[in-house]
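Re: that chain you flagged

S.,

Sorry for the slow reply, it's been a week of failed gels. I finally had a moment to sit down with the sequence you sent. For the record, here it is as I used it:
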Amino acid sequence: MTSPAPQIHPTSEPVRLPERAAIVDLAAIRHNVGVLAKVAAPARVMAVVKADGYGHGAVPVARAALAAGASWLGVAHISEGLALRAAGIEAPILAWLHTPDSNFSAAVAAGIDLGCSGWELERIVAAAREQERPARVHLKIDTGLGRNGATADRWDSLVGEAVEYQDEGLLRVVGVFSHLAVADEPQRPETDEQLAAFRDAVALAEDAGCDLEVRHIANSPAVFSRPDAHFDLVRTGISVYGLSPFAGQSAADLGLRPAMTLRATLSQAKRVPAEHGVSYGLLYKTPGESTLGLVPLGYADGVPRVSDRGPVRIAGETYRVAGRVAMDQIVVDLGPDADPDAFAGAEAVLFGSGEEGGPTAEDWARAAQTISYEIVTRISPRVPRFYVGEDA
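Prediction finished late last night. Pasting the structure tokens below so you have them in one place:
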């Protein structure tokens, strides 16, 4: 985990941002969780804050999400859950991705719920014995995604083994869960097949003696597209951060507000002649005499190297990256009429809320032929996080 990021607090004095910054709007996080809670009701909301809150900062996002009505927090790794506990967060936390080296004892001691696909069961029980405290377990069924989770032919025996340990007081099976593969493509039939398999798995667990607190399979797209997948709890990741999980719908279409703005201060603006090459490989040359602007963000900061036409907003106009993205910097062609002096120290926004036509993480995802999840999550710790909207 990275060290806590600096924060912007409401003040009457103007705050000068550093040359690079990822600004996270916690009011947007709260708004998005409120939207999700309304759509998912009566199911409860788990805000997924793995990967340092999808690059936004796990602890600030977790606190904002809980304040807005989220009941649970979700992480991939136990270490991420322990960091939340160390920050004083007491809400229910589920961690679901483990290896034999995962610290199950620390998780049990910290009251972190554990996803279990089968192989982890003996290690979880050993941790419970060591801590003299029953573990809270969510059994995972692989309904078709093919990642972790017990397969259908193993499910009966896993449930039976878990119930035996439950009878011994070593654990409690408090949940059954799975994960959807194509909920972002609502027309595909595989989601129906997964939901049918999930219902069968839940019924078997309940018949075997599991008194389940939560049954959960819905991810962000399923919250909006499959109300029949909500069950008791929905696990919301990308939508918490105000980004759409659908290729054909924007965040605004879903009532969501992007929470992160990535910006920098131009480090240089200069006039160059026609046919002047730009960046490695000289793949771009100025069509005529022009002004080039240098933005101090590159692939070491998380800007995808392949996005050589990514949008950058400067002084109310959107420009495109000219030439290859370098490790520390990108170049934009500001055009033949741009006065270098007028652009000295100007703010360059790579993505943000999209208001007034500004670029979004989705725009960068299209430029890089990837998804918005990757764009925000990959912003590196070298870019300081600043927080606004704490008291909004």
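What I noticed first: The two ends are 27 Å apart (CA to CA).

Talk soon,
D.
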